[in-house]
């Protein structure tokens, strides 16, 4: 159970301050130019917290996909044509899938490594027993954006391969926005932290009014990509306005009715998986299966010190 500490007139965000806050302070919240359709499920003036009906069935099983990344070293990559060396990063990244039913079981894990640099025609980097695949980046990217893109691609590929192998089409929850993964069938993006204020004040107030196990009405968002979205609150005893709030996203190809049904299913499925603060400093939004998967994936990345030493040795030998 999430613990909160009270004094008259204020409340304490349950997240460990080392991770920032689950909701950015209002002065830091970025406004949004997203085109919103707020009357997808109910009229705008009737917005209110929604409790899924008693007939809403919790999925018997669902899949959770997540990934982690780590920069193993900052590097300088020689130009094969004799030009100036180019900066880059050597990074490890991993994706995994947990199948949740009566318990939570990792069913797929894959680790990859890469060198990300604007240098052209660079060969892969062999560092001891591992190989860092060369990836050319463009523009002002220091490698971080390309690394995140490769991680997203790995998550998608892993999910597609797992479903193809098993023939199952369980509800898939992907940690983070659904951007770049909207083509995955029966999938929902799960966003734990909030840096952008999407809703107008009146609808944002509905988010603050949510009780655990409730959600907002479904709305439609269009930025450089389109999706359905809704907010839900996970179990928490904190009185902080957005404590336990997560945003969920679904593909724009759904009908409004299917999006609302999916929102109900997700809202009953996730609360039992809510993180607890004595185990996870990002509770309750960091779901227990996500926290366990992240721990496993970080372990699979290997020892950062050994990899750094292997990279330095490879650089000297080169």
TrEMBL record:
InterPro entries referenced in this protein's UniProt entry, alphabetically: RNaseH-like_sf (IPR012337)
SUPFAM superfamilies referenced in this protein's UniProt entry, alphabetically: Ribonuclease H-like
Protein name (Swiss-Prot/TrEMBL): NurA domain-containing protein
